[in-house]
Amino acid sequence: MKNKKFVLYVALAASLGACSNDNEPQSSPVPDGRTALTVQGEIGTKGASASRAIDTDWGYNDKIGVFMVYSGNGAGLTQENICGGADNKCYVTTGGDGNFKPDGAETEGDNTNIIYFPVVGAVDFYAYYPFISPLTDYTYPLNVTVQSSQEAIDFMYVGKVEGCTKENPKVGFKFVHKLSKLVLVISPGDGLNTADLKNLSVTVGNQPIKATFNLSNGTLMCGADKSDVTLLTTKSGALSEAILLPDAAKSRVLTFDLNNGNDEPFTWTMDKALDVGSKYTYEVKLHRTRAEIIGATINDWTKVNGGEVDAQ
Q1: Least confident of 50-54, 62-66, 83-87
Q2: Cα–Cα dist 89/103, whole Å
Q3: Is the peptide bond before 25 cis (omega within 30 degrees of 0)?
Q4: Maximum distance among all alpha carbons in the chain?
Q5: In the chain, what is the straight-line distance between the N-terminal and C-terminal CA atoms, in Å?
Q6: Burial group, residue 262, by CB count within 10 angstroms (0-12, 13-18, 19+)
Q7: Which of 34, 83, 205, 221 stands the most exposed, by the fewest C-beta atoms within 10 Å?
Q8: What is the mean pLDDT of the chain?
Q9: pTM of the predicted model, to two decimals?
Q10: C-beta separation of 182 from 242 below 8 A
């Protein structure tokens, strides 16, 4: 990700046979001398809340998918190139502290997600968040229509980490956000008070809503489907946010509706493209007749100051 910096340190040791992934316990070492992969994700200090991996913290039980492939043959992430059966293995941080372990290994004794480093030759790694299974042709389906669970649609990716061997078992994974985020910090203005915001809804019009992400080459392709997207708004109406697909269009209309049976909705046109991995934060003051943008920043979810914009 961009403002969400972290490194996954992967400690892997040798197996007796190259790229073997038999179901052995995770304890170290196991009888044949193998040591299982361990993953630590560092993304900042974990707070007391259970906030998810959508900004700076992991969330409880966040899951990532990990692939290990043969290195140096140019095949990338393909079925034929998978090493040791490490094909979309699920690792989980149960405490939200960035310490990842194979899903199921501790509580259920399920060893199917454990990855072992080969004794001979180099391997490459790919990873992504959040984990899903099954995957088709190593493409990840994306759909941002429903914003109620932001962690479920906040897609992040680690491209090929190359030339990893048991001689250097610590492998750094740097995840990057591959979508865009829009955040509105809202306050009441002329003719309104905080109570007037409690039924507020915000929509952004005519946005691409579906895409696929190629996990092998790191490319995203948006589909033709477009729709209005309703932002996730807090009960107080003070914060409204959405994770959106990157979009080159430099004009999108946001509609603010107080839903009070009296005031007509009013609109504001955002004049910026949605870039990959960027977070757009606007301070919005809602007046009885208009929305006023009193501040704006864009940062790596490269800080850029925005100007004031009035919306009627």
Answers
A1: 50-54
A2: 8
A3: no
A4: 74
A5: 35
A6: exposed
A7: 221
A8: 80
A9: 0.82
A10: yes
101 φ/ψ angles, rounded to the nearest 5 degrees: -135, 160
Residue 167 has pLDDT above 50, yes or no: yes
Q: C-alpha 84: how far from its chain's center?
A: 27
Measured distance CA(60)–CA(86) in Å, rounded: 24
Q: How far apart are CA 128 and CA 283, in angstroms?
A: 32
Tokens of 27: 């304890």
Domains in the chain and their CATH numbers?
7-177 (2.60.40.2620), 180-311 (2.60.40.2630)
Tell me which residue has tokens 């008070």.
Answer: 193
Pairing outcome for strands 226-230 and 201-208: antiparallel
The token duo for 257 is: 């509706």
Distance (Å, whole) CA 110 – CA 107: 8
Phi and psi at 150, nearest 5°, equal -65, -35
Q: Any idea which residue has 């997207």 for tokens?
A: 229
Angle CA 59–214–182, to nearest 5: 50
250-270: average pLDDT: 94
DSSP H stretches of helix in the chain: 150-153
| Residue-level length of the chain | 312
Neighbouring residues of 128: CB distance < 8 A, sequence distance ≥ 6: 64, 65, 140, 155, 156, 157, 158, 213, 215
**Structure confidence at residue 173 as a pLDDT band (50, 70, 90):** confident
Dihedral of the CA atoms 27, 29, 32, 38 (nearest 10)?
70
The Cα 52–Cα 3 span in angstroms is: 15
| Token digits of residue 96 | 């939200």
User: Which position has the token pair 């941002």?
Assistant: 144
Among 94, 64, 33, smallest CA distance to 156 is for 64
